From TrEMBL:
Molecular function GO labels: acyl-CoA dehydrogenase activity; flavin adenine dinucleotide binding
Cofactor(s) in the UniProt record: FAD
InterPro entries documented for this protein: Acyl-CoA_DH_CS (IPR006089), Acyl-CoA_Oxase/DH_mid-dom (IPR006091), Acyl-CoA_Oxase/DH_mid-dom_sf (IPR046373), AcylCoA_DH/ox_N (IPR013786), AcylCoA_DH/ox_N_sf (IPR037069), AcylCoA_DH/oxidase_NM_dom_sf (IPR009100), Mycobact_Acyl-CoA_DH (IPR052161)
Name the UniProt record assigns to this protein: Acyl-CoA dehydrogenase, N-terminal domain protein
PROSITE patterns referenced in this protein's UniProt entry, alphabetically: ACYL_COA_DH_1
Native source species: Rhodococcus opacus (Nocardia opaca)
Keywords, ordered alphabetically: FAD, Flavoprotein, Oxidoreductase, Plasmid
Domain of life of the source: Bacteria
Residue stretches making up the Acyl-CoA oxidase/dehydrogenase middle domain: 122-216
Acyl-CoA dehydrogenase/oxidase N-terminal domain residues: 9-118
GO CC, alphabetical: plasma membrane
Length: 365
């Protein structure tokens, strides 16, 4: 699926390294693997082989490379359906957020360990009444002599049951303007007063959690960036969250498995060309987003576009595979079943589809 012409030698070498590790590793390729079971050992091996935190400064455990270069690694991992969930959120957006907004001490405390996948982060943004409308966050952080005390509730927190730390968006002051008075924090999941409760999915899987914060003490040094600037900071974080290839490659392991079976006839191949065209456009958009991130910009509308169109492409991949199932083996059928169960997630996580459209529309006005 890669175009050799547009890849640098470095990108080709990184892709080869990822393929080599995936070939050696004992795992079952999955759709939506970045939202699946955690395999800390796999993530740590990626870190050892220099395949994590590529864009971060060298003195924070990175390689000072571009987001375009990193894209080669993330695309390959998703293509292979590799077990990446342990490091995904931390490497994708928490490290970059700390590097953009955090104090040097905060960066030193967390980035090198994130780069080695020694620790995992979960994202505490959504609340029972604050999902699409994130500015409605009601969790509070109140200043004390030593730092902050957090009270409130987060919901749909993916991977909080294996995460060591949480990113938490909380209200630090009341204001007429709902976008003012928000701040970002790091919270230790094992701190007294943090209660992580599982939410079991309809498929019986444990992916989400609800988290209650009951008088949770957080040191002042774990405030990320500037008090009261949480809204501006989280918006720039969402470009990292929404603009990556996981928004259109989560179902690729299924498509790849179908192609491997060699069951396509001429009609199927004609339909496949439509999917390939969409995939090519989205990959090109991901490269534009990566280039914008490299330039220090926050490509919020482009990321929302990628997320919206990527979701549609993933659903189209399922529609493409469905009529082929009777010609496929049990492995493809198992991948398909799991992909169908995972498919409703894509339209919601990271922001609901209508909200993505509204972001894009605002940008055009
Ligand atoms: C798989 C998955 C993983 C997730 N992981 C995390 C996580 O790790 N951390 C975290 O903080 N959150 C997480 N979430 C939560 C996710 O961010 C929210 O589900 C999402 O923002 C939508 O919020 P909501 O569920 O409260 O739905 P609501 O905001 O209540 O929206 C419900 C429906 O109303 C529609 N709607 C809402 N507002 C508008 C509008 N302005 N215009 C038009 N239509 C609208 C939408 O179509 C949506 O389907 C996850 C969600 C999923 C599905």
């Amino acid at each position: 699926m890669t175009s050799q012409d547009t890849m640098t030698t470095r990108e080709q070498s990184l892709r080869a390294k990822v393929r080599e590790l995936c070939a050696d590793w004992d795992y079952e390729p999955r759709c939506d693997a970045w939202g699946g079971e955690a395999d800390p050992a796999f993530s740590q091996e990626l870190g050892r082989r220099g395949l994590l935190a590529l864009t971060w400064p060298k003195d924070l455990g990175g390689a000072a490379e571009s987001n375009l270069t990193r894209l080669a690694v993330t695309e390959e991992l998703l293509r292979a359906g590799a077990p990446v969930s342990y490091h995904w959120a931390g490497e994708r957006q928490i490290g970059p957020t700390l590097i953009r907004h955090g104090s040097r001490a905060l960066q030193d405390e967390f980035c090198p360990r994130l780069a080695r996948a020694e620790i995992s982060f979960a994202l505490g943004m959504s609340e029972p009444d604050a999902g699409s409308d994130l500015a409605a966050v009601r969790t509070t952080a109140t200043r004390t002599d030593e730092g902050w005390v957090i009270n409130g509730r987060k919901v749909w927190t993916s991977g909080a049951h294996f995460a060591d730390y949480l990113y938490v968006l909380a209200r630090t002051s009341k204001s007429e303007d709902r976008h003012a008075g928000l701040s970002e924090f790091v919270v230790d999941t094992s701190a007294p007063g943090v209660h992580v409760q599982p939410i079991i999915g309809m498929d019986g899987g444990h992916h989400f959690n609800e988290i209650v914060f009951d008088e949770v003490h957080v040191p002042d040094r774990w405030l990320i960036g500037t008090e009261g600037h949480g809204w501006q900071q989280v918006i720039s974080q969402l470009a990292f969250e929404r603009g990556g290839p996981e928004r259109f490659l989560s179902m690729y392991p299924l498509l790849g498995a179908v192609l491997d079976t060699g069951v396509l006839d001429d009609t199927d191949r004609a339909a496949l060309r439509g999917l390939t065209a969409q995939l090519t456009v989205l990959r090109s958009l991901a490269r534009n987003i990566a280039a914008d991130l490299d330039a220090g910009r926050s490509p919020v509308a482009q990321a929302a576009t990628s997320k919206y169109l990527g979701n549609r492409l993933e659903l189209a991949m399922l529609d493409f595979v469905r009529p082929l199932l009777s010609r496929c083996d049990g492995r493809v059928r198992a991948l398909f079943d799991a992909a169908v169960i995972a498919s409703p997630k894509s339209g919601l996580r990271g922001g609901a589809a209508p909200v993505m459209l509204s972001i894009v529309t605002k940008e055009m006005q």
